[in-house]
Design brief:
Order of helices and strands: HHHHHHHHH
Radius of gyration: 18 Å
Strand content: under 5%
Shape: globular
Number of strands: 0
Number of helices: 9
Largest sheet: none
CATH superfamily of the largest domain: lambda repressor-like DNA-binding domains
CATH architecture of the largest domain: Orthogonal Bundle
CATH topology of the largest domain: 434 Repressor (Amino-terminal Domain)
Distance between the termini: 56 Å
Helix content: 55-70%
CATH class of the largest domain: Mainly Alpha
Length: 151
């Protein structure tokens, strides 16, 4: 009976990924993309197929603690990286809280500009610029353009 009460709160048994798993998966994808690593290469490094990496990145499959540890080593980040920047509405609504997770809680990832491939490629290209003064000028230009569009 307890499991039935938890299913709607966590997303388990509902056919929808748990929002925490979606967040962790998106952080795996973010780091992998920033490193310019393919899903296949990441899978090879941790003994998985690229399809399994895809499922992890979508949050369709949960990442166990030992696998999360492996991912942190291959992607050269601390385990805590995968939980960084978790929206409060997700972190505060775990099964131990009073409220359950809403059906729309994963929608924020679809509209999050930091989760878009374009953003990841832009950041990677930015850091490939070797000359610090050129990087700074590009950064200043981007800020100026953003300010101009707000007016």
């Amino acid at each position: 009976m307890v499991a039935n009460k938890l299913a709607p709160k966590t997303g388990y048994g509902t056919g929808r990924p748990n929002p925490i798993d979606v967040h962790v998966g998106s952080r795996v994808r973010l780091r992998r993309t920033l490193l310019g690593m393919s899903q296949e290469k990441l899978g090879d490094a941790i003994g998985l197929t690229f399809q399994q990496v895809q499922k992890y990145e979508r949050g369709a499959n949960r990442i166990g603690s030992s696998r999360l540890f492996d991912l942190s080593r291959v992607l050269d980040v601390p385990v805590s990286f995968f939980f960084d920047d978790m929206p409060a509405e997700i972190a505060d609504k775990t099964p131990g809280s009073e409220e359950g997770l809403s059906e729309t809680s994963t929608e924020s990832y679809a509209t999050d500009p930091l989760a878009k491939r374009e953003t990841l490629e832009l950041v990677r290209a930015y850091y490939q610029i070797d000359e610090p003064s050129v990087r700074k000028r590009l950064f200043d230009l981007a800020k100026a353009l953003a300010s101009a569009s707000e007016q």
